[in-house]
Specification:
The structure is a single chain. Helix 2 packs antiparallel against helix 3, helix 2 packs antiparallel against helix 5 and helix 4 runs antiparallel to helix 5. The protein is about 80% helix and about 0% strand. It is elongated and about 50 Å long. By secondary structure, it is an all-alpha fold. It has one domain. The two termini are about 10 Å apart.
Length: about 140
């Protein structure tokens, strides 16, 4: 039987995969500057990963139950990190869209964007660690 409690565990895999793969493509675009496909793919993976992060964050807030004790503290950390991940991904998406639409070469904004992409990738890993800890250590139902 399907319940809304299953939405969050089903959605969390998308931002993890999309943001991490997109960041790898972003690194490749720096290493192989002549190949524009890396940057193009990194951009679209960022956009898809940001939308996935928004969906996962929203489903976590709306459809997961409250926890107490140590599990509750870990869930709180998980939620804070998830919010930071979404925020960094949104900022980076906004910067990337601005850079694409302005058609300007702004190295400073490109490096700031790269920093937010890196931070998003790091945060999604740490957020996933805490979420996995909740599931596997505290045996939360999927």
């Amino acid at each position: 039987m399907f319940s809304t409690g299953h939405l969050h565990p089903m959605m969390v895999h998308f931002p993890i995969a999309l943001l991490l793969l997109g960041f790898v493509f972003e690194i490749c675009s720096l290493l192989f500057k002549k190949e524009t496909c890396w940057s193009f793919a990194g951009f679209w993976l960022l956009i898809a990963g940001t939308l996935g992060a928004l969906a996962a964050f929203g489903s976590g807030l709306l459809f997961t139950s409250e926890l107490t004790g140590t599990a509750g503290k870990i869930k709180e950390i998980h939620e804070i990190l998830a919010g930071m991940t979404v925020l960094c991904a949104l900022v980076d998406s906004g910067l990337k869209i601005y850079l694409k639409l302005s058609h300007k070469e702004n190295d400073t904004l490109k490096w700031i964007s790269f920093g937010f992409y890196a931070l998003s990738a790091i945060l999604v890993i740490i957020t996933g660690f805490y979420g996995g800890n909740l599931v596997y250590t505290y045996m939360l139902p999927l």
